[in-house]
Amino acid sequence: MTTNAALPMRTLGRTGLPVPEIAFGAGPLGGFYGPVDADSGARAARRAFELGVRYFDVAPLYGHGRAELVLGHALRDIDRDAYLLSTKVGRYLVPAGGPGQPGRARPEGAPFNPVLDYSHDGVMRSLQQSMLRLGTSRIDIVYIHDVDAHSQGSEDAAEAAFRAAMAGALPALLELKRSGVIRAIGVGINQPHWARRWLAEADLDLLMLAGRLTLLNQEAKPDILATCAARGIGYVAAGAFNGGLLARGGQPGWRFNYRPAPAETVQRYQRLAALANDHGVDLKAAAIQFVLRHADVSTLVIGASTAGEVEENLRLARAPIPDAFWSQAG
Question: Going by fewer Cβ within 10 Å, which terminus of the chain is more open, N or C?
Fold first, then answer.
């Protein structure tokens, strides 16, 4: 795999795979956060590659297949050995909204509905569909997706999903890894207590934990980061803006990790915003750089829907921030 010295490189844990410290998150290309036309989305991914990004992350759930379709189009004419690609399993897609089909669960994205399935066969079906949408015959990294109460709706549902994934999805992925079809296995979740459960009971290469190593939420410290480092498990950070709060502010409405923001979180955000203003710091730059200051983070996945957003994110990752800001930010 070729690399580009324009971005500092890190390593994905014990896999030894080199990655830039910033990766491209294709979630916004699915349109869940607002309309994104396919050409603009594809230009965003290609611009990321031009600027040295060599790791692209996506999932079937993002736009119910649309994000994978757009990303696949963007990368189709790029040497497949020049980048790493990850997707996720736990859902396959079925047609929706057409004659004789069920109605669409969401109006945006592609005309498909997700079917939750962590079984062996469900994983194989999901990966085959992803390869077709992405236009590739191989996926480098596969994450078991959303096995936590945040995504499943309750602790009981999360427990059922966990047991199904341990019995079906994980053995299937280990089989694919042993045969060389994929290169690394991870889980992509939102809740620290479920991250600890996965780390305790599963043989993982990577952990992607969203929104728990940020200026506003540091639940991944110290034990989850330390466990990953000790076992050579790559920590893939996501959700550096906590669902947008650190990128766009709190108005209208205060949302934190896609839920109503607690009062103490709002107060902490306001304090950080005032501190950034006092020091002439872009709070979005601070949010990105806070994650990158942790040497045990393998890479930070940042979503983008336009080439301009990609350029801004990479610029802010290098923007000067005085030590006085960090010493007061806590």
Answer: C
**DSSP class per residue in 83-114:** SEEEEEESEEEEE-SSTTSPPPS-SSSSSEEE
- In angstroms, the CA 210 to CA 187 distance is 11
The four Cα atoms 308, 44, 292, 9 give a dihedral, to 10 degrees, of -120
Q: The whole model's pTM is what?
A: 0.96
112 forms bridges with which residues in the sheet? 95
Is 284 a catalytic site residue?
A: no
Please tell me which residue in 37, 39, 55, 62 is annotated as part of the active site. 62
Q: For 122-172, how does the pLDDT look when each residue is reduced to its tens digit (9 = 90+)?
A: 999 999 999 999 999 999 999 999 999 999 999 999 999 999 999 999 999
Length of the chain: 330
What angle is formed at CA 67 by the lines to CA 158 and CA 107, rounded to 5 degrees? 80
User: 17-329: what CATH class?
Assistant: alpha beta
Q: Which candidate in 55, 79, 81, 88 is catalytic?
A: 88
* Tokens describing residue 124: 């194989």
Choosing from 55, 57, 140, 143, which is the catalytic residue? 57
State which amino acid sits at residue 12: L
CB atoms within 10 A of CB 227: 17
